[in-house]
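Weekly puzzle thread! Below is a chain. First person to post its structure in token form gets bragging rights.
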Amino acid sequence: MNQTTHTIALTEDQIDFHKTFGYTVLKQLFSADELATIHKEFNATMAEQYAHKPYDGTERHWTPMTDEETPFFASLMEDPRFLTVAKQLYGDDVLGIGTDANRYTGNTHWHRDTGTVHQYGVKFAFYLEPTDGNTGALRVIPSAHRLPNDDKFADGVRSLPLEQVPCTALASEPGDVVAFDLRMWHASYGGSNDRRMCTVVYYANPKNPDEIEALRRQGEGNAQAGVKAFNPKRQYLYSKRWMSNPQGSLTRQFWIDRLTEVGYFDAPGSVEA
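Winning reply:
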């Protein structure tokens, strides 16, 4: 398995592994103090965003974590532990998309995080509790990101009981981070009714009309899947403050300018009205 500890950059062997198999495990990326901060920001934000329907284990809760109310989470997209790796894997012009927090209930069935192979990038996922193959760890089908859009493959995967699909289960401890290509088929099995997982997401910068259109459609899908599906208090993905880039970050401004140019923010619910 491709693993590293306290990384700022991947080795060439690790990059080759990720490009071949579609995932990388980064061991103990967070310190104990950082984990304590993550727990604090996670719990406070979830309580605020779902005061109207407190978590009872029957349905998933989700919320963005990109603003000043959660400063540690908000910093992660520009944290070199994430951004450097994303650039190594998907180019120096990779686009930061967001950070979020989730409370899952039960299994998560097989899916990709993109609707087409023309839209791709990397998701960094980290769990707040220990997980293994039977307690909700991320399961991946190695090298599935290299497949074309194939409805027959998708139908075959979904026709089987979740746990019978041949796969690799990526066990993790608090502090570990799993990076995987958005085109990877992935799932989880046997998790508790309060499986807490957070993500940091980057998209490859589109280079041709098909990729630009795929990214624009992904923006529509993200707004639909996030705000409308889960109904947190916050009814948008990106706040006016985040879009105004008050710290004057050149990195963030590049992301905002490029995503605006391709129409990623155009969908209702994407940017705070």
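Puzzle host: Confirmed. Bonus trivia for everyone else. The chain has one domain: 3-207.
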